[in-house]
Amino acid sequence: MESVTCVPSLIETFSDDVFFDVFDRLSSMDLYKAFDGLNNRFTAILNDHRMHFRDNISCLNLDEFHSYIENILPKIIDRLVSFTFGTYDTDEYQQVTLFLHKYSIDLSCFKHLRTLVINNIEISDISTVQLALTNLIHLVNIRLSVDSNDIGNLSCVHVGNSLFASPRLKHVKMNMCSRTTFNNLDKISNITQLSIVWCQLQELTCLLQYTPNLYTLKATICGLEDVDEWKEKICGNFTGKYCLHLNSLKLVVESISFDYLLLFLTELTQLRSLWLLLNHHECMNVEKWKNIFQSSLSKVDQLDLTIALMKPFVTQQLLTFSKPSEICEKFNTKFWYCRGWHAKLNEYDHCIRLIVSNNLMPIIKKAKRE
């Protein structure tokens, strides 16, 4: 009888590096379910220190979540480079609470983590997360959102040095749905992109002092308490003093005087892109806008300015400022057209929106002479 020679299958001739590249695109649950224990080689590849994982467990049902935490996570916790957890739907089980309290998982054990996303965290747990982040020296991206059911009128999230401590941290998004404070910061951060919902203007000013590398900022700002102290800090060469490199600014502004907003913007002389959503009739003062773009904001070339007002307008407002249609015409003069900016007015049953933007520039229409 002739001997039979066992020829390895084609897939087994691939190098380990090929499997690393392929497996990198799959979830750890699928990989361990399909390949763990299949043969010695696949088991070795799955447990190799070069094998990294990118897991999003936010969509797991309760049984799958328990299975993952008990059977998969212990095998890969120090090899995860991207991790997302916390259910998107607050009506589902509280995944973050189970993760941090029932299983008492320490986030500092994710030693090689570069991206961390936590959905629907409770405010009381944010301090625990911040403390753990000081040990994640490879962290580049972080996104946190607070459970909306955990928000009260006086809810406040205090952000300190520990959240921004990682030397490689560049991108931060915080959707707290409550006031965020930065009063305890005293160390310089390397963050370049930041998104905040929401904080007060003086707290945003404080934050900028410790984020000199910040390039893109998105924030909702509301309120200004100690005006005199803030004006003393902001007036002067704020950009030069703190070496700001802020290039792109996107702000939703509520309950802040137009003059205070302009005072803040005056200090950001390096801005190239500006997006603003405002809701006060004072912001329709075309001459004040023109003055700041001629002086402090002369480098801005990308503009998206929206002023939204509710109807009806009170008599005092109409006496102080022109009708919205007349103001729109003033934004469509030579000064604005030369910068590639055009204005339009959208009127609805209960509000109007005056929009000045690069995206509205007509192709044929010529600019009016001032």
Description of the structure:
Helix content is 31%, strand content 22%. By secondary structure, it is an alpha/beta fold. Among the domains are: 12-51; 58-182, no CATH class. Strands 1-2-3-4-6-8-9-10-11-12-14-13 form a 12-stranded mixed β-sheet. The longest helix is centred in the first third of the chain and has 15 residues, at 62-76.
Q: How many strand elements?
A: 14
The neighbouring-strand order within the major sheet is 1-2-3-4-6-8-9-10-11-12-14-13
Q: Tell me the radius of gyration.
A: 27 Å
Helix content: 25-40%
Strand portion, in percent? 15-25%
Q: How many DSSP H or I helices?
A: 14
Largest sheet at a glance? 12 strands, mixed
Class derived from helix and strand content: alpha/beta
Q: Roughly what is the average pLDDT, rounded to an integer? A: 86
Helix and strand element order = HHHEHEHEHEEEEEHEHHEHEHEHHHEE
pLDDT under 50 segments (min length 5)? 363-370
In short:
The chain has 370 residues and is of the alpha/beta class. It has helices at residues 16-23, 28-35, 40-46, 62-76, 95-102, 123-133, 201-209, 227-234, 238-242, 258-266, 286-294, 315-320, 324-330, 334-337; strands spanning 53-56, 80-85, 115-121, 141-146, 156-158, 171-175, 179-181, 193-199, 216-222, 248-254, 273-278, 302-310, 342-347, 351-357.
